[in-house]
Amino acid sequence: MTSPGTETLPDRPLVLLCECAGTMANIDFDRLEGQVSASAGVIRGRHWCSREGRAQLLELMEAGDGRQLMFAGCSQDFAARRFHKLFARGLALGVADIREGCSWVHSDDRDVVTDKAQRIVAASLAYPDPPADTVSHATRENTVVVIGGGVAGTQAAAELAQMGHHVELVERRPFLGGRAARIGTVFPTNDCGQCLPTTDAQAGTRKCFHRNVALDHPGLTISRRATVESVSGHPGDFQVSIRRLPNLVTDACVNCGACEAVCPVDSSEPGMKAIFSEFYDGRVVRTIDLDTCTFCGKCVTACPVDAIDFSQSPERTTVHAGAILAATGCRPAPEKYFAYLGYGHDGVITQVELAEMMDDWAAQAALGRMPVEELVMVQCAGSRDRRHLPHCSRLCCMIALKHAIRLRTLFPEMRVVICYLEMRTAGVGYENWFLAARQAGVEFLRGTPPEVQFDADGRPVIEVEDVTAARKRVLRPDLVVLSTGMVPAPDAEDVAQTLGITRDPDGFIEILDRKNRATETRGEGIFVCGSASGPKALIEVNTEASAVASEIHNFLTSAGRRGTAASQVDAARCVGCDTCVTVCPFAAITLVERPADAARPAEVKDDGKLAVIDPETCRACGICVANCPEMAIAHNLSDDALFGRLALMTQGVEKPVVGFYCKECAGAAIGLSGQRRDHYPESVRLVELPCLGRVSALHIVEAARLGAAGVFLAGCASGRCQYRTGDTSAAEQMAIAEELLAASGTPLPLELWHLCAVDRHSVGRQIRMFHARATGGGMGSEMLTREMQLIGAPAGALAGASCAAAAAALSGRCEGGDGCGHDR
Fold first, then answer.
1. pLDDT digit string (tens) for 55-85?
2. Is CB count within 10 Å lower at the N or C end of the chain?
3. What's the rounded Cα separation, in Å, for the pair 392 and 65?
């Protein structure tokens, strides 16, 4: 395992050179050891991940002489798996990838491959990766603020309380339950929506709000008629200011109704008096509408239990919270989106209004009366239309099916027609509702009307093109029901602004990662669930509430987020331009008043601003560093280190091709491609970055100055950057570099690739083909034939095609030409 004498100098780094059991025969390890030993100690081993090798590595770790340890062998990913137990015990080990990044992807030319391996080791020693030993938010308050008392927020709050956390549930209305408490039955369970899972203290699987003791947990505090006014602090210790309006009706209320009987004023809630009751959530019986109440005092006089107290006043409290959950829900789209379909005229209502009428209609059915003879439902009313609501709300089709089935059940003689373009029943068991509706006699007409007209008697008239029958139909229903879409809750914009999080193009709270972080936002410690991030069925809301409760519990009990050191602003260079604030994907940078004793550039006035980076919120992606026009931000992977790596890797190489790639998704694809031994030319030199957003135009221009024949940038899959905007930043920097190089008369082939692990089969081919284009060799017929053989294509598969067209077919790029149907 050991080369005598080479590991005994304590003032030099120590390289653990691995031959990987003889699988890297194209590297001359004697020569490599001699070259590396000139600047570092070397311990050479045949198989470092063997039992003996790991035992020796453990001895080195326990010796703890402070030397830099560098493992030269397999890739970072492979080494992390082989030595994971040692890493868990605190082993600090850098990795120089000479296997997947060199030996296994190159030819048998030992001199060239050995030279590249030596450069990889030298670059890793001279410019090592920053250690991921920074822990953020290690101390976290055990309190959660939940904004929104609908089904999602209430269930998440109840479950968090049961997990041992103190929860402040903030609801802007007097009653819990949200819209689910007011819409009747819900799909696909066809029962009420205002129930929560039971705890072990109660029998059954679920209980209504007013019967569920989970809401009485001592760790759960409910603030009604409350709003979050401001949020400060940092993840793990937010200071949340809550303003609470009085309910005026105390817990002494017995719901006798005497107050409502004497109230002379109507409420802003339809059909209610200024003192009213809603769905009973078991804790608040009645409330007073503060917007319409005249405080005449008649209700106070009529109350037999003195439960009305006009002396109550608003309160403000500040809560120290470790995490915040936004569960603000959604609401039906306002009239402006579907007024063109006759809404506001007699005989035209929405599905929400039909749901509110259904109980009354059920009573009429019991009396043998049918309120209307013919009813037409119009799907996608104002939705999936760029002129109105561009998005699909996902719920409308199922709501229509639910109502149609119930109408046909209550009134077998009623004609129910659904006008639609597509019925979207994508859910477990949802298609059964569509089949049940057809079986119940609901008529489906494929086509949506552009408008609803009215005859002389005021009866709706609908002209619609029946796509299936290819003819125009004229319907004269008694009632038109519009299936309208859903939009964010009224306070969604204010909540997002207060919390410092972003909203998606449709106005809903934007989630961090739709696949893997579906309950997180761009703000660390700030979570979202339910329809606040987009319309969802109630069963999805329930599932997501439980999921987010677990995520918040994990966040609060975590020992902290481990990562590399945060970026830092050089006050002597910062001009307070706010570019970094704009591009930071995690809101880690703010502009503050520049302290009097802070350094400043000569052009900055005394009242100038200074950018400040929160070290615990910063993810060290480097996007701000690449975009700073004054180069005033320092990253743990400095520009000097990147320039140094470039110089070492390209020195003496004829027409090198430089590839900057992110260590996340692109790194996975390249590493797995290396394990497949997918060869590419030795003159390709790769530079790993924490995120592709770290690359700047200066790095690309420097590669050109050093003689690069071409530069490619490889990041995460399109739209899936792990730091959200790294690929966008890289594209902008590449465009700037392209302009600079063109202006200097030295244009260079530049490409941006989006990769993930599934591209392991093709990334080697992409590199080979880019190398051929960049170095001027082009895609000759011999190379094309070889590439076709590698992918298993039959002989002559590209016969008759030009080299350009064949290359485009292999790379997935379209070169245009006669007969090409792609946009150019």
1. 999 999 998 778 899 999 999 999 999 999 9
2. C
3. 62
